[in-house]
Amino acid sequence: MRYENWPELLDGCLRKWALIPFVREKTDCVEFAIDVIAVMTGRVIENPERGNYTTEQDAARCILRHGANLATVVTQYLGAPIPITFAQRGDIVIRGNNLGVCVGVDSVFRSIVGTGMVPTLKCEQAWRVD
Predict the structure, then answer these.
(1) pTM over 0.85
(2) DSSP assignment, residue 82?
(3) Model pLDDT for residues 18-65, shown as the tens digit of each residue
(4) 3-state secondary structure labels for all residues of 92-128
(5) How far is CA 108 from CA 10, 13, 52, 61, 84, in A?
(6) DSSP code of residue 53
(7) DSSP one-letter code for 21
């Protein structure tokens, strides 16, 4: 369940991540999503592959060990996805092989220099964060 003040907590989390450079396995999209969930709910999700990948190819192999694709792995932790048209602020979204967080009309994703915005409706799926 989200904390009562989750909107403010999410805003602070997003400001923090906007200043953090991208480093695969340390500050990538998986770690970003894990942190957003923890900040809003207190739920700790461990990345079982942390420390096992440094390249995109390594990351793909790690994903395959846990499921067919990143969406399958996320579903194992967050439950069934919801249609992207039902995504709300604070929900986790996916576009290609990148996880982000919905902030309304747009969603925030990791980028090489911090974070960037993508229209939420350009994402394929979403998962409710409760």
Answers:
(1) yes
(2) E
(3) 999 998 878 999 999 999 999 999 999 987 777 777 877 877 787 778
(4) EEEECCEEEEECCCEEEEEECCEEEEEEHHHCCEEEC
(5) 11, 11, 25, 25, 14
(6) -
(7) P
